[in-house]
Design brief:
Layout lengths: L30 H16 L6 H14 L3 H9 L5 H14 L3 H30 L9 E5 L2 E5 L9 E4 L9 E5 L2 E4 L1 H4 L5 E3 L4 E2 L4 E2 L4 E5 L7 H12 L5 H31 L2 H14 L3 H5 L2 H13 L2 E3 L2 H8 L3 E5 H5 L5 E7 L5 H12 L5 H8 L10 E6 L3 E6 L2 E6 L10 H9 L3 E7 L2 E9 L6 H10 L3 E5 L4 H11 L3 E3 L4 H11 L5 E5 L5 H6 L2 E5 L5 H6 L2 E3 L6 H35 L5 H20 L14 H8 L47
Parallel strand pairs: 11-18, 11-20, 18-19, 20-21, 21-22
Antiparallel strand pairs: 1-2, 1-3, 3-9, 4-7, 4-9, 5-6, 5-8, 10-22, 12-17, 13-14, 14-15, 15-16, 16-17
Helix pairs in contact: 1-2, 1-5, 2-5, 3-4, 4-5, 4-9, 5-11, 5-23, 8-9, 9-22, 9-23, 11-22, 11-23, 12-22, 14-15, 22-23
Length: about 700
Amino acid sequence: MADACCGTDTPTKPLSVTEPAAPPAAVWQVRELQAAAVSGVLLLTALFLPSPWDTVGELAALAVGAATFVPGTLRGLLGGRLGVGLLMTIAAVGAVALGEYGEAATLAFLFSIAEGLEGYAVARTQHGLRALLDLVPATATVRRGGTEQDVAPADLRVGDVLLVKPGERIATDGIVVAGRSSLDTAVVTGESVPVEAGPGAEVFAGCMNGAGALEISVTATAEDNSLARLVHIVHEAQERKGSSQRLAERFAKPLVPGVLVLAALIAGLGGLFGDPGVWIERSLVVLVAAAPCAFALSVPVAVVAAIGAASKAGVLVKGGAAVEALGKVKVVALDKTGTLTRNEPVVIDVVTANGTDKARVLQVAAALEARSEHPLAAAILAAVDTQTLTPGDGVEAVPGNGLTGTVTGRPARLGKPGFITPGLLADDVTRLQDAGATVVLVEHDGTLLGAVAVRDEIRPEAAEAVAALHRQGVRVVMLTGDNARTAAAIAAAAGIEDVRAELLPEDKARIVTELQAYGPVAMVGDGINDAPALATADAGIAMGAMGSDVAIEAADIALMGEDLRRLPDAIAHTRAARGVFTQNLLMSGAILVALVPLAATGVLGLATVVASHELAEVLVIGNGIRAGRRKHLPTHPALRTATAHRAIPSLRVPVQPTAAEVDIVVPAGRSLLPLGPAPAAKPEGGCCSGCGND
């Protein structure tokens, strides 16, 4: 920690996911504080020793205390770096030269205390992140060559089959290939609701398995999984600097040579008109009084504390710049798909023509969509029994309109209204579109069978999150590439009045720039199609970062879980953090302004200046730690709709119905249609089904 407050002489060692997390040292285990304790005891003892043993005791106290910062200062000086430790070293040497051994020892004693407390504060704020590495089990069970064997997590390879027993933690990221269970992801994503996992589900390192056994195909090594990326990114974030932090450093760096010049002028000019010894002593006191260590510490400690607290609450903040930017946000732009909605479209209604069974409408639609990878195809296929489904023949996409092909030997079509004439279903199509659904019409052998309505359901917590943003005085805007009707319906359900729809990625970036006229803007999106807007915004925020590498790379902040309420929580947290380091900047700056003239005029002696200055430094560190309080990052109650969504599988309509009519069953917690009509807009094409979905 030598000279740490103004630039360490060695870089911080990156954290490794393959190394165990060491427990945080107690206060009495910090080397600098141990040295300070010894120095203090020697200094106190010297007060009761006769001459010349008192001098010996003071010099011993000086040597022990100075050992915590002088070596680093000298290494920095050889490397061309001028730090605050240099001012302290010169002041101590000068005091010794003047025979003020006790004051020099007091300086070293107090400065070593400040160094130790700084190191302890930073170590404590980093420990929550470092402890994440303990979430990886010591060994993992894999199946190789037909046999099960225990290996270290670092030895896992992509493609290995990982066996996870009930109650075990998952060693790395993967895809479930067999088994079903519930996973506790709270420590990784911040979600308090257990997540159901079955074949095909993506799982992450560090999650706790529930009652079922799982077989997982490994998709990432221990050094490259989601937990390792989280640790690496937050570790880098602690090195990044916000504008206020850079302001402190810009002030501190020229201050060191400036103070040296000022001290030389005080000693030189004062010596011409007065006692040289008196003015040299005052110049040495000025060196100590002007040490900007507290000023340089005012922002970094608060930033590191704030980042550490946020990471433990499921909010990944990439450095001081991101803390500042999010804390100043006045406008939040929200993408629709995957942010306000789940990005998991489901069939919400089927309307029929000419008395056709709903099951037949779905059967023909599913046969055409059987080999499509479009989200609408997945929704339609989820509504039927795919095990008995016969895919259509000769299926071809009509760009911007839909699909054509042959089903049971007869021609069939599926597509948007206009590509297929809705006829008697026109009113139903308009009703469903006004409700925010994407509607595709189904035609078989030249006869209109019906229409299928698919909608990406709004997140159950979206309205609550938007209301919280409004209470914070934040303007909320929706930006989406989807059609205006769908966008308006989702916005109305979420409580958003300003809606911008049918946007290309470059349009979103342009609108973000326009919104900056109202104040700093945060853009929230999935980090892929929204990348230009995320980069343009003052603060780019990615949703669900544990499942998206692109989101992590593109955004300044990432909400690692799927709970949108973390957004207003993160804004409140960073606002509080900005308040803390603003207090620190003002307090430390005021101390410098007050101490320097008092020292230069002889009002304050060396011991008083040292005590005042180092006490202020301790206060700054203590105040900075307040930024790590999780007062604004609460644990939200579980959402019943979220539980239903994850726990209740979609009910399917059989392809071969046993009744004359089969109703679509909507899972518990989902509304069939949102309230309120929306303004009409032209349908938008572009997907394989001509649905207008982006």
